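Risk register update: the risk of archive-format incompatibility is retired. Evidence:
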Amino acid sequence: MHWMGITRRLRALFSRRVVEREMREELALHFELQARELERSGLQPEDARRVAVHRFGGIEVVKESYRDARGVRPLEDLMQDIRVGLRTLRKNAGFTAVAVLTLALGIGATTAIFSVVNGILLRPLPYPEPGRLVVVHERQPNGSDNRIAAPNFVDWRQQSRSFTGLAVYQDGIVTVLGGEKPVQIEGANVSQDFFPVFRVQPVVGRTFTPDELKDGGPSAAVVSYDFWRNQLGSDRKLAAHQLRILGRSYTVVGVMPAGFHFPGTCDVWIPDDLAGAASASRTAHNWAAAIGRLRDGVGVARAQSELTDIQARIKTQYGSNVNAVGANVRTLHDELVGSVTQPLLLLLGAAALVLLIACANLGSTLLARGTARQRELAVRAALGAGGRRLVRQLFTESLLLASLGAMAGLVVAELLVRTLVALAPASLPRVSEIRIDGWVLIFTVVVSLLTAILFGLLPARRLARSDPGRVLTSGSRGTASGGRGIQWSVLVGGEVALALVLLVGAGLLIRSFQQLLGVNPGYESAGVLTMNLALPESVYPDDGAIRTFYSELFAAIRAIPGVQDVGLTNVLPIESSFWNGDFDIEGRGPGSGYSEYRVVNGNYFRALGIPLIRGRLFNDNDRAGMPDIALVNQALAHRYWPDESALGKRIRNLGNDSFRYGADRWLTVVGVVGNVQQGALNGGVRATVFVDEAQRPFRARYASVVIRTTVPPSHIVSAVRSRLHQLGPDVPAKFATMDEHVAQSVASRRFVMSVLGFFAEVALILAGVGIYGVVSYQVAQRTREIGVRLALGAGPNRVMAHVLRQGMMLVGIGLIVGVLAALALTRLLSSLLYAVSAGDPITFATVVGLLTAVALLAIYIPARRATRVDPLVAMQAE
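Archived output:
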């Protein structure tokens, strides 16, 4: 039996070789006859052979046989492969256009997101040895960061040995006079080592001298390149410019290089002996932030350990007067981009999934097209082209497609990068550094090569292994082989699974965003206009001038038609703040309470719709010289007086203002107001004390005016601006609606959700197109079989059900794999979700239903076409 099996195999092999030889001889004979006939018509021999090859249907099979005989060089082989590939793509212009568009979407999306990742995460900071720059925070008992209390920083700087320099800065919005016009910009007070820490030299002038850094020394200012160009006219005679900042005159001494704006978007730096002039409190964390440069050989962990040991000694020495338990040290790069690293890598992964779906889509399409080209490839093989030769030709076509897709993808990437930059939230760091540069181009080339391998190599290897004898003797009855059917199943199922993962991720973010927008913030943002003000100290030097300005401004704004209420606060609810610290509760000792500190006036609560729970609000009788009063929110009242009323209780030493208003001045709580979300809609509620602007106007120098209107807020901006200019021509203002502030607070979440949602939509479309293409081709290949079924009595509905059942089996496998993959991968989204679990059943059910509906539609169209097959025509075609 064994020998009989071997004999049968040898006989079959011999028979196949005979068929191949006969086919090769027959084709060569026909070719020679045509070539000679063309030569007799007057063509040169080489031209005659070229035309003969063209008449063979564009298949240069005989040229391959002659090449083997004369030994053509590899470069000529490559050029011929490229020519043949271009001709093949040109002949199939429709397929080429769809393939290039598919690749352009995948490669373009991946390249665009990589441009963002490269600009924000990968490109080094523009400072010498940026890896040694670190930011230092005090660590609270719960592990969170806080700014540094002044005395603690002095001890750190004196006792630490891990730094070549350790500096502090205090940044904020200031009004600057002395330029082309009054401007409200970000400025910073900086200590002696600030610029040396960065090792960045000014492009014009110098930085601060030791005398200027001393308290009471000469007043000097360093400005940014943008400020120098826009406000000082790029004048290199810096000493001719005097800037009025915080009530003092500063001589401009230096201009920093373009792009240097640390911290944040800072445009002006002034020297300050911050440690010497600051409060002696070791719990006042509204003071300054610290930055340092590590010594050679010192890592972040070692520096953090040293500062934590120093802080432990401080805690031992001062006891309850210190609430920081250590230090948190991290690199400046991590400080700037740490919060956006995970979302950006998530988007890059999503773009890669879109590219994989595009590759699977093209792979299945090429596999289907390859079946139609089996006869062509069999003829090549019969005439002597080896398997490697055929793989190389097919792979060259894939490389050409990938190259065209990459070129189109760069155009798509450029458009997407511009769109992403325009949509990027203000909190996204280093946006100005996002661009398509050399590294991005290299990334695109590598991605294109990988793409060609992913969608081109598998079909090429599969088709090149076809049996030419079987193909040439099987007529036109080619159907997908079992192996190819498995590969189609894998590709289609993979598309569905990848699309499901993306759709689930986008769905979870959308659900989370809906939950976030449904949060009750504790105030009413609709119909509220805000106006940020920074009163220049040179014009409004004392509390009396500040009170008078606001009194006149509020009266002028109330007279504008459509204005209901006008209020003021030093910090809007939606803004983050460092205005917090300990306070004393009467009868409980120093530092017995801790809260946020807000300076407001009475109409602030009505303007924002914050409810009064008990007691009263501020009124016109609460003015300077009257007993000091305060309001508290429900969170503070419940924390410190859980079983009794907060009304009538007294507190003092609040908000680090005791040095202005006296440490012994008690404030009596006269009202309790509702809680509001702090910092963001999901920022949580914090214990908060409110004091009256009329009694403590110092913190209202930098404040936001809130205006509730009965008309669209944008309609009164010009009128408010006009009233402000009449009363304070030197007071610049920034306008925004409260709704815009709320939208900005969730802009990062909206950005990630929108981009991921876009990728999910593209994935859904590609998956639907891929399913449709494969099922359509399978139906076309099975035309004879379907015709036979119909001829034997199978009704159209039965044929449609058969096609639908087979197609949905592929989709069902993809859905199962996709659900399992999504359950594992969506846990990476947990930190971006709010009030929604990573395994949210509603989201999963909705996505599975959507994909099933799209797949059914994609299969239904070719299935319905199959029911219209004429059995007689189908069998005659065979």
